Amino acid sequence: MTAEEFNAQLGLCQFLPGPNVVNLAVLVGKRQCGLAGAVVAPLGLLGGPMLIVLILGWLYDLYGNLPLAQSMLRGIAAVGCGLLFAMAWRMGMAIKDKWAFLPFTVLVVTAIAWLRWPMPLVMLAGLLLSGGLAYWRLGRR
Amino acid sequence: MSLVVDLFLEFTLLAFVAFGGATALLPEMHRVVVDNHHWLDDTTFTHLYAIAQAAPGPNVLVVTLIGWKVAGLAGALAATLAMCLPMSVVIYLLYDRWESFAGKRWQRAIQIGVAPLAVGLVFSGAALIVQSAGLGWAAWVLVAFTVLINLRTNLHPLWLIALGAALGLLELV
Description:
The complex is a heterodimer of chains A (about 140) and B (about 170).
Chain A: H1 3-15, H2 20-63, H3 67-93, H4 98-114, H5 119-140
Chain B: H1 2-15, H2 21-24, H3 26-36, H4 42-54, H5 61-101, H6 105-133, H7 137-152, H8 157-169
Helix pairs in contact in B: 1-5, 4-5
């Protein structure tokens, strides 16, 4: 597989909903070995990490109530938030035409984080508005 | 058993709106799992996110943990499968067609249009974890520090996570 093929497939996976890495594994697997590859590749990708996470989940069941574990997880959660904010910032900076499109970000945050509206509805409405604007602007050029 | 089925159905629905991956789904998973069904409480949800963050592997595995906590091993497998399968099938069938759409106006419009929404979802997820975790001022400093270090340096996030764990253990945040 060439770098360009990989990028094109990655682009599609980032565009479609669902876990990017899993989608990408399906495509790469399909390309190499057809249906069998498309089934085996995501399993191979997720199998090991999933086992680790399940062991951690089991440990959490056993020891999660201990004050020490709770304190540690609170610290990790704080860092996790920081990483999410940084990721949002980086994604936001990558947007072209920020004045036209970042208002949609504000709308989504208002609807989801503040008003707690259901996401499928918000995404559908948002995609119509934001995608509609993008469609219109593409036509003007 | 019906719990596992419910879990599977809810996460299947979620999979179809997961623009921006599992991370962007955090707010909606919280709404479904904590607010609507009361399968987990706020604190547990936050803890599971923290565990997934610290564990190696793709971030979709937070779904596995939520499934595990709600309905054991069957729940973990059901939730993970529900999250991964629908789009895997779609993408498997769609890919050959997709290439012929490349560069079309509507396709580019969706691509451009989705990006700001995904940013909003990730930001909302972070805001929600902050709320649920009930962070004090010291933790806020840690959040700000993490943002700054992550944006300005190439330090691997695991070091920051280790720092968070250590500060937590010392009861400093």
